[in-house]
Amino acid sequence: MTTTHAARTSTHTTLHGKVALVTGGSRGIGAATALRLAREGADVAVTYVNGKEAAEEVVRAVEALGRRAVALRADCADADEAAGAAERTVAALGGLDVLVNNAGVGVLGPLDGLALTDVDRVLAVNVRGVFLTSQAAAARMAAGGRIITIGSCMAQRVPGPGGTLYATSKAALIGLTKGLARELGPRGITANIVHPGPVDTDMNPADGPYAAGQAAMTALGRFGTADEVAATVAYLAGADYVTGAEFAVDGGHAA
Ligand SMILES: NC(=O)c1ccc[n+]([C@@H]2O[C@H](COP(=O)([O-])OP(=O)(O)OC[C@H]3O[C@@H](n4cnc5c(N)ncnc54)[C@H](OP(=O)(O)O)[C@@H]3O)[C@@H](O)[C@H]2O)c1
């Protein structure tokens, strides 16, 4: 029996019947990703810390697409809450197939201006939380599970001073991703990392004071959109034979 190209493509993109957990899904790249995965057919849990109303809006938008959704307050910086998000997703939606480690904080500034609290905060949210959520999710995933982590173009190339702490945290996620790929590959679970370039969100508005310089560092000369990052996450959620890989969605920042 032959399979058409269209049928193969559709098999590789549809997430019908899958459950996704998107950390930090109330705004920005996380919200766009939650909606994109829902459009591909997934039911979606999103976590948030402060943005309860924004997260509930994302839930309503997912439900309007005919999918199930739940908003969970879970601070990645808290070890129990980071790990607990996976179990709460299973309890609310009946399983967990796709984890998107999106929640993150950006603390930029000169080395001698960074306090111990800054270091602890960034590593707790961007690294320890991602590790613990991935660990808890992997324990609940069956074959076909997907772990997709949002890194940063600054994990690959730090184009100027002030990014040491943030780059440290995001570069750690490359090691996490490769380690997870090796450890979970035998179970049929993949792990990949997406490195956005400058993307227009609350964290990094395209009309902010440093925006022009960031846009100029990309080959395309512009900020990306959250939807452009979400499209690559959705691709990875449906990709079977891709693991341990880094994907720059950065307009050529690393070129
Ligand atoms: N924007 C960029 O230019 C850019 C570039 C490269 C990489 N990234 C990465 O992309 C990811 C998303 O960034 P973004 O620009 O969309 O950020 P954003 O607009 O600031 O949104 C951040 C999201 O993460 C949530 N969040 C923050 N701290 C959290 C915590 N401790 N626990 C759980 N959720 C938390 C926020 O939830 P609440 O508001 O509800 O608290 C919000 O939903 C981050 O990992 C960031 O480092 C962004």
From TrEMBL:
Family from the record: Belongs to the short-chain dehydrogenases/reductases (SDR) family.
PANTHER family per record: OXIDOREDUCTASE, SHORT-CHAIN DEHYDROGENASE/REDUCTASE FAMILY (AFU_ORTHOLOGUE AFUA_5G02870) (PTHR43639), SHORT-CHAIN DEHYDROGENASE_REDUCTASE FAMILY PROTEIN (PTHR43639:SF1)
GO molecular function, one term: oxidoreductase activity
Keyword S-adenosyl-L-methionine part of the UniProt annotation: no
InterPro entries: KR_dom, NAD(P)-bd_dom_sf, SDR_fam
Organism superkingdom: Bacteria
Pfam families per record: adh_short_C2
Protein name according to UniProt: Oxidoreductase
Organism: Streptomyces caeruleatus
Ketoreductase domain span: 18-240
Keywords attached to this entry: Oxidoreductase
